[in-house]
Request: fold
Amino acid sequence: MSGTVLDIVGCGVLSAAGSGLDALAEALEGRRAPEPDPADAPGGEEFPPLRVRAVTGFRPAERLGGKGLSRLTRTDQMGMVACGQALEQLDGLDDDARRRTGVVLGTGAGSVRRLGEFTRDTFVQERPYMVNPSHFPGTLMNSCAGQTAIRYGLTGVNSTLSGGPTAGLSALRFARNALANHRADRLLAGSVEELSAQSAWAWHRTGALGRDVAVGEGCAVFVLERGSDGSAGSSGTRPLARLLSCEAGYADPGAGAAALGRRLADCVRDALESASVTAEDVAVVAPGAAGRFGWAAVEERALRSALGTPGPRRLPVHRVLGETHSAGASLQLASVLAHWRSADTAERVGLVTSLGPDGQVGCAVVERAGTAAG
Amino acid sequence: MSESRPRRVAVTGLGAVSSLGLGARAVTESIRRGRSGIGPIEQFDSAGFERVLAGEVRDFRPGDHLDRIDPDQWGRSGQFAAAAARMAVGDAGLDPEELSRSRAGSSFGTTNGESGVLGELSSEWVRGGLSSLSPELVGRADAGRIGAAVNAELGLTGEAQTVGTACAASNYAIGYGYDLVRNGEADFMVCGGADASNRATHAGFHRLGALAKDVSRPFDAHRDGIVTAEGGVALILEPLESARERGARVYAELLGYGMTCDARHMTNPDAASIAECIRGAHRDAGVKAEDVDYVCAHGTGTPANDRTEVAAMREVFGDRLPPVSSIKSMLGHTMGAAAGFGALVCCMAVHTGFLPPSATVREVDPALGPGLDCVPGTAREARPRVVQNHGFAFGGNNAITVFGEVAQ
Reply:
């Protein structure tokens, strides 16, 4: 599988910048400052004294209809809307194609708010089992992928991965493996994280956010197909980019943050080799740990070690979108695609990196559409 | 895909933390005898529930089974996963140092992640408001820490995947590990699943009316639901060829797997989709329906699951159903670990020659149709050569693994 190149033929993205890659591109260029609207902060609980960045203009009822909406978590809703957006970019899928199309999503712990509220009810209701039964499926991590499959009738490989900030890369790797082994022809792969008072307080209490970094949310999904030079499965849609490689590794955080940094640097070297590109080819990096206190420097050292100093341009994703935890790696990849969409550059290769406090590290190497070397 | 020829994949080590004991031997011995692991709930305050039994792990002192990680830094699910993984490495006769220098990673399934930690955080919210959440607990809350715990305990530097496809998750995790070993991307994968007994899951199934009054009775005419349970389970996957070269004991060959998604309903199983999953697993494993000697059922013991599962099997197997049984009759429903326990028992069944029982069945449900051999009571001596292991989940996630006998 290490040689498998995938086409990215669609992308759905929701973030503080708004909906779609163009809005994200404008925000990354500073042409549009995301306006944090306190009214957008979801849920009835009071938020901690932190900056928050909800998805701008998120109106799920307009996209999903009002029926049954309250049963869905915000995570479900964001995943469904983003996947719908991505599917619209294809020429349409017939029944056969939907049988070979699936959904693979990354998350931290699912909808933290739903799980918290559901568990809270077991303590405060008259009897501990007097919970809302229609809210039970939404407490599970695979709710979003399952609901999305139902909504769009996608019966192909469906999976959910967890891994904190690296969850989006975990999903890409799972999807890539399934496609490489012809277990599916087309997968919507990405990750999602919802903003809630529960998770915002968690960030506040741990002090894990970098200075002046907002707590964010969002979702990005990519329609992946085996490379168009390969066999069946391609929808014939012109790719936005190609996923050249995606690597993951682990270092025990108990051995110190530097060990994670070294492991990430190795991971980047492996991914570049697997993608048959050099460090000099990498024109833009979207780093993942920039929003995390203490970890930004670890990641930066790893990047310098693997790519040289000062190395390629860094995209300031966190400054624009906030810290989006398990949506992070996917939103970073979307940011690279958005950047290429607008920027008038000769950039060819982009890199997404991520590392988390639990020890996971990972990266993805992407190539801009129509720039393949040789 | 790697250019080189795919490698055959062997299961060479097994580990378990369960209500039926610690280690694959203890679990298998209990299952052969049809023992029950069900007892009073101790992991959370069961006051006010009408159903107060669960399959909980008792007398587990994580420190006794963990060499590297400090159990106090990890949630109960991570402890289960790491301890089971450590046992599996020992069982496989692998040198831990050599393993950690190898291209090795982990892939573990879970339904509720670190549910014990999340339950404690919810309790803090109720008692002292969200501003009272403990930073230490927050740091242990992500489900991804289950795979991380395994890698940290074993010193693995490959990826740590945690798969959250609910009650089918272990089969997804095992399948993923299978592909990596088969294609040469990893030389060892430690795969399995873990979940901890918790309040939210118990309450959810309770409210759905899906909890059995006493024990789960899969395939019984009067079956009335599941019993929530917990545990951790681990399998060591490595190339068959190198396993033989190092003289390892091979429990079974992992022949292949299949996955489907119902995309119809979040909680009702779908027979057509399950049948398609069975066919896909057979194709991938290179076996025909008539080759299958035993099915380790998802077999939750709810009326709907068992009815749907048997209907799906009839779609594929026709009139000749192989023996099919449910180890949930003894373990209860260990959620994300369930399919992993199924895989462990399948490997032991192939290796030592028996069919696991449906221990609690008293009267096989006539509505399930004729010719259903669910191995009632205790294990049956037999020599199954090809066995298949079912895992189905809310969200419409189905995954099936197929194991086969290996000539030693």
About this structure: The longest helix of chain B spans residues 76-91. The radius of gyration of chain B is 20 Å.
